[in-house]
Design brief:
Layout (H helix, E strand, L loop, with lengths): L6 H9 L15 H4 L4 H13 L10 H16 L2
Bound molecules: protoporphyrin IX containing FE.
Protoporphyrin IX containing FE binds next to helix 1.
Length: 79
């Protein structure tokens, strides 16, 4: 999750993740949506992960995260 354009990371935080259930992995709940996380909170979580435990990815900005949140919503409404 050190991608410079981490749309997928924002999506996992907001909506959870169930891509590997068939391999026996658990389902991650929609932590961000359930907790109604703000763009600022999502940004803080992402930057914590991107700069901790030896990770050294460029920080994301709140503006970037807002843009991804918009894209995810746009996708959700076209379903
Ligand atoms: C803000 C907090 C969290 C963040 C940033 C986060 C992040 C992630 C990410 C990035 C993945 C995908 C990993 C991959 O590349 O396969 C993932 C998967 C997962 N997460 Fe979370 N997560 C959070 C909270 C939680 C919580 C609270 C739970 C459980 C109650 C949880 C359970 C899981 C599970 C079961 C998977 C699936 C593992 C797999 O299929 O490989 N996560 N999480």
């Amino acid at each position: 999750m050190l991608d410079p354009e981490p749309l997928q990371y924002v999506n996992i935080i907001m909506n959870g993740y169930d891509g590997r259930v068939r391999e026996g992995y658990g389902v991650m709940p929609a932590v961000g949506a359930n907790a109604n996380l703000s763009p600022e909170e999502v940004t803080a979580i992402m930057n914590h992960e991107r700069t901790s435990w030896g990770n050294n990815a460029p920080k994301v900005t709140v503006e970037q995260v807002r843009k991804y949140l918009e894209e995810i919503k746009a996708k959700a409404t076209t379903k």
